[in-house]
Structures are given as structure tokens and as C-alpha cells.
């Protein structure tokens, strides 16, 4: 099986959809020799911020000298981005070989694994065969029944910011969603929690107490911003100074969670010197998270796709571009709470250009444009993402800026318009 055939095989089981449960991935990994049992993990769940947390944590572990796997989703430009070792995505030939070996085992199962379960198995098998010393796993959906939760007790479980998303699967309150995400917490691990509303914190605290798991809640009152520009941020946390290239106040909070995660790893015997922590935070990159991809005029790409993300983007637009005309290049998925997103983002924008993301779940650009007309600002729908980029830049002019927001499913193509892969 070559690379294209491997991708076609994985894509070919999309009809199975998302089916929560650990039975299939457990059986598949057992057929593959249980590679997950040969690895150590940091496991990260949450509605928002888990990808940034994963990227920052993996960067710190690499800086400390550990061979580090990173598993995230979705990808921006190439499927291979989903699984990396020491910052390098998996090679085409290696992925093809893994899928060639996994396929007969998966096809022999009475209940066939889903697309995400196949990817999870491939990543874990690769990390084990490459003898990664630790792997950072981002949960796909929820936590308790997510395929990544097939692992035994990780070194650290991290629960990031929780909001209302995927409510039809996870529950219609943040407390119900928190209970699902706290399902990654296992006896023998440490747990680090993003500081948030009391109901969520109580759910996680009760889970940790029931399992005898030490819990650390990041203390955001200890964050002191020192410098903030489009070039990055400098801040102190608990009187230690750090710098990150990621933009927005929310990334300072994400970084604080990572610092507490590193402290938990240190308590468990991992050698992570302070200079490795500082360098890892500074060196971390996480594309399409309020990422400046062009400066003339400023063009920002953000994959935010739910109301919490929209609030962050609106805050960042006012923070970094207070005096510029702000054009929002928007595309959304029809099954997201896009009406609430629009009500949050519209006041921060002066004009809108609409496109259709590359997804079968996408809301057509024309329909999005009609939904935006009620805000009484210029709106235009474009037939392609590339046309949308050009139209947004034209609308911004020399004195404005563009922010692409609404879905990660259009971020990769937008970045490609600027020569970024």
C-alpha cells in the first residue's frame, strides 16, 4: 500500500462517523501488540486551548532532550501533521507502512474501527516503534470515550478550558461536558486544571479525589503581562519570566497550565531544567491560532470555531488592531453554533467576506452572508477561498487588516495563499 492508498483507506471509513467507545480501539491495539503500554503520556482534554497546550508541552519536552511524540487534530494542510516526533510530521512512506500493517487487523474485526481510531492506533504504534520517551496526546472529542483514552494511567492529565461544544454528544451543560472530559483522569496520574468556573472545577476535583489523584489548578492571578505585540509576549508566572510567540491573553493562561504541567512532571522525576522550560515555551509554534501570516496589510488566521473562540478573537482584534479597519474573512460549519459566533464577532468587524470551508459540513458562503446582513455592514460572498482572500485584502486596503476566522477547515488553504505549509 502506498501513501495515497493508505489515505484512501483511512478516508474510506468516514461513513462510520464518530462512535464513542473504547472497545474497537482496544481490540485493534491488542492485535498490534498493545504498543500504548510501552509509552509514557501527557493526555490533554478540553474544549479550547488543548492544541496550544499540546504544542507548548511537546516543545518543552523536546527542549529538555526527550524524544517526544505529538498527536493532534485536525490538520491544516497535510494529514501527516496529526502525528509528529520531535516536531517532524510522519513521513509518507512510514505512514503507508503502518496502515499496510494495521489494515488486515482492522478488517478482521467484527466491529470495524473508525477513522479516528485507525489514526490513534497508527500514531501509538509509530511512537512505540520509534521508542519515544513520552508522547503528548490531544483528545479528539470529549475524553471518557475518546479513542486516545485507551491508554493506561498517563504521567499527567490536563483539563483545559471547557465550554458548550458538541453538546449533542457530551451534554448540554458545562458540568456534564466536564464530567466527560475528566474521564481521562486515572489513578496513578497527576492532574492539572485550567482555572475556570466553579462548577467545572468541582467536577474535576471530585473525580481526582475519588481516584486519589493530586490536582493542581493553574493560578491565573499569578500571571503578570510585561510586553505584548504582534512579535510575541513576555510575562511572569509565579515570579518567573517567560516569553512566547503565540498571541493573545488566552495564550498566557495556556502557558501557565503548561508550566504547572511541567512542575507535575518534575515531581514525578522528569528532568526539565528551567532553561528548557523557557526555551520550549518561546520556540513553540501553533499555526492558525491568531497567527500573523502577512504584514502589509496585516492578515491574521485563526481557526476559532465556537463562541468561546469567537470571544477570544474579538478581544484580540481590539487589542492588536484598535485603529484599523477590520475585515473578517469568515467560513463556518453548519453544525456549529455560528449564530452566537456571529453576534460576538460582528461588533469587532467593519466588513465581512464569506467563503465555504473545505468540509461536507460547511455552511454555504451565500447562506453565511445572509446571516451577516442583519448587522448592517458590508458583506460579500466569494466562490472560493482564494477569491475570498483577495476580496478581503482589497476591502481592507492599505490602512485596514484581515482576520480569517470560523473554521480550521479553511485555515490550511488560506495559509497556502501566503506560501505557508
What this model shows, in words?
This protein has 421 residues and is α/β, with parallel strands linked by helices. It folds into two domains: 3-283, Mur-like, catalytic domain (UDP-N-acetylmuramoyl-L-alanine:D-glutamate ligase), CATH 3.40.1190.10; 291-416, Alpha-Beta Complex (Protein-Tyrosine Phosphatase, Chain A), CATH 3.90.190. Helices cover 39% and strands 18% of the residues. The chain contains 15 helices and 17 strands. The strands form three sheets. Strands 4-3-2-5-1-6-7-8 form an eight-stranded mixed β-sheet, with helices on both faces. Helix 3 crosses helix 10 (274-283), helix 4 (92-107) crosses helix 5 (115-129) and helix 7 (174-181) runs parallel beside helix 8. It is globular. 49% of the residues are buried. The mean pLDDT is 94.
CATH architecture of the largest domain: 3-Layer(aba) Sandwich
**Overall mean pLDDT:** 94
What fraction, in percent, of the residue positions are helical?
25-40%
Instruction: Report the total helices.
Output: 15
Widest sheet, order of strands: 4-3-2-5-1-6-7-8
Quote the distance from N terminus to C terminus. Answer: 25 Å
State the fourth-level CATH superfamily of the largest domain.
Mur-like, catalytic domain
Amino acid at each position: 500500500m502506498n501513501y495515497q492508498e493508505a489515505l484512501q483507506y483511512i478516508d474510506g471509513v468516514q461513513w462510520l462517523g464518530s462512535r464513542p467507545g473504547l472497545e474497537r480501539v482496544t481490540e485493534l491495539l491488542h492485535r498490534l501488540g498493545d504498543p500504548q503500554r510501552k509509552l509514557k503520556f501527557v493526555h490533554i482534554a478540553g474544549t479550547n486551548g488543548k492544541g496550544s497546550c499540546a504544542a507548548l508541552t511537546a516543545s518543552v519536552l523536546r527542549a529538555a532532550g526527550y524524544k517526544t511524540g505529538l498527536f493532534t487534530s485536525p490538520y491544516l494542510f497535510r494529514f501527516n501533521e496529526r502525528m509528529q516526533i520531535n516536531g517532524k510530521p510522519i513521513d509518507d512512506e512510514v505512514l503507508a507502512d503502518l496502515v499496510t500493517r494495521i489494515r488486515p487487523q482492522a478488517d478482521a474485526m467484527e466491529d470495524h474501527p473508525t477513522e479516528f481510531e485507525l489514526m490513534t492506533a497508527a500514531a501509538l504504534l509509530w511512537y512505540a516503534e520509534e521508542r519515544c520517551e513520552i508522547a503528548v496526546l490531544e483528545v479528539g472529542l470529549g475524553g471518557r470515550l475518546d479513542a486516545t483514552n485507551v491508554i493506561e494511567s498517563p504521567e499527567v492529565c490536563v483539563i483545559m478550558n471547557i465550554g458548550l461544544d458538541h453538546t449533542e454528544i457530551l451534554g448540554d451543560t458545562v458540568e456534564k461536558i466536564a464530567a466527560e472530559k475528566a474521564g481521562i483522569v486515572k489513578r496513578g496520574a497527576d492532574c492539572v486544571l485550567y482555572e475556570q468556573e466553579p462548577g467545572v472545577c468541582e467536577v474535576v476535583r471530585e473525580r481526582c479525589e475519588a481516584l486519589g489523584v493530586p490536582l493542581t489548578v493553574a493560578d491565573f492571578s499569578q500571571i503578570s503581562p510585561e510586553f505584548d505585540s504582534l512579535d510575541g509576549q513576555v510575562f511572569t508566572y509565579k515570579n518567573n519570566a517567560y516569553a512566547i510567540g503565540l498571541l493573545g491573553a488566552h495564550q498566557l493562561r495556556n502557558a501557565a497550565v503548561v508550566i504547572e504541567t511541567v512542575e507535575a512532571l518534575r515531581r514525578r522525576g522528569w528532568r526539565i531544567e528551567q532553561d528548557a522550560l523557557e526555551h520550549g515555551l518561546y520556540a513553540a509554534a501553533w499555526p492558525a491560532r491568531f497567527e500573523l501570516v502577512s504584514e502589509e496589510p496585516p492578515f491574521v488566521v485563526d481557526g476559532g470555531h465556537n463562541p468561546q473562540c469567537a470571544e477570544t478573537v474579538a478581544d484580540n482584534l481590539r487589542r492588536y488592531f484598535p485603529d484599523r479597519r477590520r475585515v473578517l474573512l469568515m467560513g463556518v460549519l453548519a453544525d456549529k453554533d455560528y449564530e452566537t459566533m456571529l453576534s460576538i464577532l460582528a461588533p469587532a468587524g467593519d466588513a465581512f467576506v464569506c467563503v465555504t470551508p473545505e468540509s461536507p459540513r460547511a455552511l454555504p458562503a451565500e447562506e453565511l452572508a445572509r446571516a451577516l446582513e442583519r448587522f448592517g455592514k458590508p458583506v460579500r460572498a466569494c466562490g472560493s477561498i482564494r477569491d475570498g482572500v483577495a476580496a478581503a485584502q482589497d476591502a481592507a486596503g492599505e490602512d485596514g487588516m484581515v482576520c480569517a476566522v470560523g473554521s480550521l477547515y479553511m485555515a490550511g488553504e488560506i495559509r497556502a495563499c501566503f506560501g505557508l505549509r
